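Issue: copy button drops trailing tokens. Both records pasted manually instead:
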Amino acid sequence: MRPARRTSLPRTAAVTALTACLALASPFTAAGSAAPDGGRGSHCVSSRPPQRGPALDVLRIAEQAQADMDLKSVIVRVTVDGREVVTAALGESMTGVPAEPAMHFRNGNIAISYMGTVLLRLVDQGKVRLDDPVSRWLPDLPHGKRITLRMLGSSTTGLIDYVTSPGFAGKVYADPFRQWTAKELVAISTGRKLLYKPGTNWSYSHANFVILGAALEKITGTRLDVLLQREVLGPLGLKETANSFTPDIPGPVLHAFTAERGTYEESSFWNPSWTTAPGAVQTTDICDLARGAAGIGSGELLSRSSYEELLDPGTVGLGRATATCPATVCLPNTEETHYGMGVLVLGDWLAQHPLFFGYTASQAYLPAKRLAIAVSTTKGPDTPDGHTAHLITQQIAEELAPGHPIPDFG
């Protein structure tokens, strides 16, 4: 049986062994219960310090990772079947300001999984078909007649990634506060030859999701941030996840720092306008990150057929190096690790792990155990490059679900 399908498990009334263990070993307060006054951030608080069991194991992993990787902060939340195992915040947001679970940080490509689910919900509602050409709604888009909605959501269009195009990173670092427009970003990708015939290979391109956001707006006649709120954020109860059309972050803020420009400096409010579609440039908190992992990963907003598309929209078997697409770009999509509809299928897990100028975050969901892991980190002066939150998530998964490791993609 294909790994992508293994995750599509029916819900049962049985309590897993892990759930039973946690019920005995984790006697602390719930961090995810809504505050009576509905105040921003007040619903997401640390658990009481664990004395034993899986919660203590998770906390020790986070503490060790913070020390080993010189992380300024680590915020973590783990749930089973929506019930808290542990919620904790280590380190500082700024000097002398402790990190807290309620602090907001950049959501990055996690919003792409929400766009993928919106697209599949529109399929369920009979408003679109995945194989409809995007030219139906965006007639002026180059290659629009050859590119379908499915290809946008699964990143198989052949469009180059503007983020890795020559000169782009230099422009971002030279002026990290610049406001980029969707038109500018898409033009970079559509202004060069396709890497391959649409639908025949796989490569990640941020442009796919900028275009998908524009298409979703045209299909529904609704601004993307409003659409995401209506179709995903609202139904999942993600009250602390929101779009901003500016670099602002709602308080309380988890501040970020990076040495990417040669000196360790604050990067919290560097402009994320280039990262994805306008309307999907989001901030969130750790409780929403865990809830979103479970909501998207379980397919609770989708029909069974659309959940199957979420897990594998046709990407398995794609991804091979060619004369025009090197092996570092056209990555192999196998049954074990492949790209779904805006999500990564990593073994038995559905995951995303964004990285943005000093912020890293990771969410992962294991349907077989209804286990959700959410991690956010910020960098210290000597933090190594890479997805530190994802590394911590992998370590937590190894501890709590040893038979279900989270492999790397590509």
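Record 2 (pasted manually too):
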Amino acid sequence: MEHITLLLAIVVVTALVFDFTNGFHDTANAMATTISTGALKPKTAVAMSAVLNLVGAFLSVEVAKTISGGIINEEGIRTEVIFAALVGAILWNLLTWLLGLPSSSSHALFGGLIGAAVMSAGWSAVNGSTIVTKVLIPAVAAPLVAGLAAMAATKLTYKIKTNPGARSTAKGYRAGQIASAGLVSLAHGTNDAQKTMGIITLALVTQGVVAPGSNPPMWVIVSAGVAIAAGTYLGGWRIIRTMGKGLTDLQPQQGFAAQTSAATVILASSHLGFSLSTTQSCSGAVMGAGLGRKGGVVRWSTATRMFVAWGLTLPAAGLVGAGAEFLTKQGPWGIAATAVLLVSGSAVIWALSRRKPVDHHNVTADDLDEPAGVVTTAIAAVTPPPAAGSVAAVTDEALKTTIPAPVPTDPTAPPAPAATV
């Protein structure tokens, strides 16, 4: 570490800040369904997720190698390009967190890196084949595979158990949900912490500290794991609320199916070196689980906003990264201006979030300002009435309805009192 310059130190710190935002932005991936179904208390859930994210950071470096030596050509890339890329990724992460949208931190990083590299050295700086095979194809396939797997698992779960609403069954699925949530957290640390390891390693390569193609040094692995764990413990409550309550209403059986499916997809991709979006995988699994239960619905208005955010992430972060790189090319004052824009932009977003705060106290509240949407409304319109046995649960007071009396024929007669049924 004796070769680290001031600029490289700034880039490393900025990368760890991105890793921190990645942690609280993606806490929902593992714990949103666990919290929404009541399997774990909110603070307990994020603490468990933080520990397992830290452990997962030490399990593999395949994704880190994809980022540090696959997406862009290392030759001729300056350290300032990495800084500009991180600025684009951090600002997009914070903006989508403010809106409560579970967008992809991974794609924000890729978009910022691609935009900054193109601004610095042109399109030749980007490895198009790697982007297609290890970024774009997994981006499309992962949510579909996870969603279909979760839907099938949910259907199978309800078919196997004849009385899925029994208390003992629900308790068992809650225990399974906690275990599967831990698996997702472990998988998230394995996949997402490596992205920061890769970006720091790439910065070290640009400064000649390590050779191209090298594995991340141990201090990089440790610092990235700690940063993502700390962000996870902070808890991205806005996105947890959207994924746990805004997309669909989940029962413990569905939560277990969704998390198990997502974890399987993420771990398999990490082993293959595919840098997929854990957010998209988990969101797809949640929607699949929602559709897998008979009578279950997905709030497509929320899902549509989420899909739009997914589509905008790469180009939006790329544009910000390109703009930041344009500034850094101007010299030291440009780097300083970029740093000021990052800090001020982050401060503005944080101030806006204080207008309507969401934390562990109200993360499971049912006051989401979310319209049901056309599909959900149509399904609700044809929902059969409750069984006769449920009428007894309704109080007599709720059945009382005031019916106006008929208008008397004699105008001089006093009005009759209202009749109460």
